[in-house]
Amino acid sequence: MVGFFRRRYRPGLQFALNRPRLVLGVAIATLLGAAFLSTRLGSEFVPRLREGAVVINTIRLAGVSLDESVRYGTQIEKTLLQEFPNEIERVWSRTGSAEVATDPMGLELSDIFITLKDRREWVRARTQDDLVAVMQSELAAMPAMRMVFTQPIEMRVNEMIAGIRADVGVKLFGDDFEVLKSKAREIESVMRGIPGTSDAFSEQVTGAPAIQIDVDREAIARHGIDAREVLDVIEALGSRPAGMLQEGDRRFPITIRIDDRYRGDIASLGGILVASAGGDRVPLASLTRITETEGPSTINREWARRRVVIQANVRGRDVGSYVEALQGVIDRQVTLPPGYYVRYGGQFEHLERARTRLLIVVPVALALIFGLLYLTYHRVQDALRVFTGVPFAAVGGILALWLRDIPFSISAAVGFIALSGVAVLGDMVLVSTIRQNLARGVPLRSAIEQAADRRLRPVLM
């Protein structure tokens, strides 16, 4: 095989040596073309791998019961198995938090794990992205539920490194809860209009049913009941400390709570009797105003500031260009009050951090390579000759990424750094051989031809 390459390499070498200006012009044009293509690659943190499994994160209304969550999850499992018998091998669900709550979730949150069969058995889709789109359309008719499609390992990695399960998260910070909800809906709306957006949703922060009890000051004055006595009864609806039980070295708190049958609805609450100083017993409904309200389901903080996250997955384009478009749309169409601001998280956050580090690491690495070359040859001219192999080596990598429509990622950046080292090593072999030939008195052109021919095999290796 080396002989095959050598027979075709020699005519090309002669052509290049006979037409130096043409070769130099083509080389410069190639570098400029690669530089232009590099601006069209897009960017992402790490490439998306296909795990052979899918996770559907479902979000239902806050305050839903455990039985209803389990019933809904079971219905989704049956639908998936019925509609995709050739694609799905197994499916199971997890609702809420486990006993060891390393992953805190409410009862309204469920993760549906789907193990896929071999792709050769699939009928309704050819790729995993197509299969996810078909699943999404099949489940879209189910009411009162939002879905986010991802993969098991991808979901965990995103959650561990960024605290966000989706590819991109817009963190909205502020103080007023109502303003945060309103602006989060605006951002979600403009996010859905950007090409490539999938599974966009804002964090569910409301919807938890609550009962609000306000003491009627005039009523308690008419009955001669102190407000503290009414508040003690209200406190006992939850739990009220009553003492401490000690068994050996262990201590257990004792609390008192009103029986569950009085806590189920407003009528039962209103029937609880409150004793007055004169011995009369007055229903709680006569002393207070009891109403059903909707309270916050979660209040999240980051760096002591309230925040709401609007998340989305990116399909059909790279994360870098998507976030760039998203930033422009939010700046133009969403007006934030003073003291409110957004930060971008998810994979993009780590892409930016890694890109900042690479802007320091790559120049330092190239400078060290050049320094080592100079220490090897003690000639700036030879060091520069060897160093020219670095940009030409990058040309092939950029062209390969562009042809495969693969965005530039941190993994690709590490590969380019390793590739520059390989290119430098090959050029060092060639320049060293040329110098040895010149030292033996061989003319320059013959020295180049002999070195290129003799060192073809180690360079190819």
Describe the structure.
By secondary structure, the chain is α+β, with helices and mostly antiparallel strands. Among the domains are: 2-39 and 379-460, Multidrug efflux transporter AcrB transmembrane domain (Multidrug efflux transporter AcrB transmembrane fold), CATH 1.20.1640.10; 52-150, Multidrug efflux transporter AcrB pore domain (Alpha-Beta Plaits); 208-296, Multidrug efflux transporter AcrB TolC docking domain, DN and DC subdomains, CATH 3.30.2090.10. The chain has helices at residues 2-18, 20-38, 66-83, 128-139, 152-162, 177-192, 217-223, 227-238, 266-270, 284-287, 319-333, 347-377, 380-387, 389-404, 410-439, 444-454, 456-460; strands at 53-59, 88-95, 109-116, 146-150, 168-174, 197-202, 206-215, 240-247, 250-256, 273-275, 281-283, 288-296, 301-302, 305-314, 341-346. The strands form five sheets. Strands 5, 6, 13, 14 and 15 form a five-stranded antiparallel sheet that branches. The chain has a four-stranded antiparallel sheet with strand order 2-3-1-4. Strand 13 (301-302) and strand 14 form a beta hairpin. Helix 1 packs antiparallel against helix 16 and helix 14 runs antiparallel to helix 15. The model has no long low-confidence stretch (mean pLDDT 82).
